[in-house]
Amino acid sequence: MLEAIQVTERAPKLGEFGYAGDDHVVPFEVDALDVRGRAVQLGPMLDAILSRHDYPEPVARLLAEACVLAVLLGTSLKFEGKFILQTRTDGPVDMLVADFATPHALRGYARFDADRLEALTAAGEGSQQTLLGNGVLALTIDQGEHMQRYQGIVQLDGVTLEEAARTYFRQSEQIPTELRLSVAKLVTPGAAEQWRAGGLLAQFLPEAAERMRLPDLPGGDGGPAAGAPVDNAWQEVQALLATVEPTELIDPTVGTERLLFRLFHEHGVRAFDGVRVADECSCSKDKIRGILEGFSAEEIRESTEGGKIHVACEFCSTAYEFDPAEFAAAK
Ligand SMILES: [Zn+2]
User: Fold this and answer.
1) Reduced to 3 states, what is the DSSP secondary structure of residue 195?
2) Residue 88 Cα to ligand 1 middle (Å)
3) What would you report as the CA-atom Rg of the chain, rounded to the nearest whole angstrom?
4) In a 10 Å sphere around its CB, with 0-12 CB exposed, 13-18 middle and 19+ buried, how is residue 56 labelled?
5) According to DSSP H, which parts of 178-284 are helical?
6) Please, are residues 85 and 70 in contact by the beta-carbon 8 Å criterion?
7) How much distance in Å is there from the Cα of 156 to the middle of ligand 1?
8) Scanning 64, 205, 277, 285, which has the fewest C-beta atoms within 10 Å of its C-beta?
9) Would you say 107 and 279 are in contact if contact means Cβ atoms under 8 Å apart?
10) How far is the CA of 106 from the centre of ligand 1 (A)?
């Protein structure tokens, strides 16, 4: 009688659909192809982040893509920490930040020049490459003060975020990685428009020793030998992922597990419990007070308006108010 509500507590078997739902990252494995990955559909939490900022549509799309990428990469962290994705470019959208804090908190914001953006839009130029321009994509893993911060930087010159992320995996991790991202605004008659994004990440991780290079070969860089043929299993994965339609990645009636089943059922795919991700910011009055305490007396004066210092969090727009006397006394 309670079958229907207990369904999520049973080990999920692909073929029984509707497990994770929106805003849950689903890790998966296809042993026959030596592939592991993660897939996600972001719904209400992404819509909350984007709606709060009320960005123009092209900016919202870019940030949505940055968010889904940060979720796919951040949920791979094995320890407590942060994964920060940041772009710095010379286009109208000169900065995107999406940061993921374990176990589930995502926040993000975009910085853009409204005049330049309007000029581009009026000229009918709206590609990701023209919006971003040239610059870099930085991916940072921060596992707290006792661990070394790791940062990988890739060029973002005339390529999309998806392409830049692939380059990152090739250069920094040397793991064959395929990635598909999609963003859309869901328009339902009679209901408010809602942002959605989806993504699928697949990595080739063969366990068989003969398919791995020895790490201590002289001059070895751990990467595949130049000109080496692409492994058949990995070729198959690439071919399968090439069949993924952008709409399948975001369609709530398809869902994450159903897409994985569609792609990999012939090889046998295992999906694990979905990991929830949420729209959460780590800002606090104490943290912002800490920043203001580092200000000079002059900076405190310049920040004061109408007898108060007002600070709004760039990520979540929460407004904080301080009495400048709190800081002036210490100067
Ligand atoms: Zn905040």
Assistant:
1) strand
2) 21
3) 22
4) middle
5) 232-241, 246-250, 256-264
6) yes
7) 27
8) 285
9) yes
10) 11
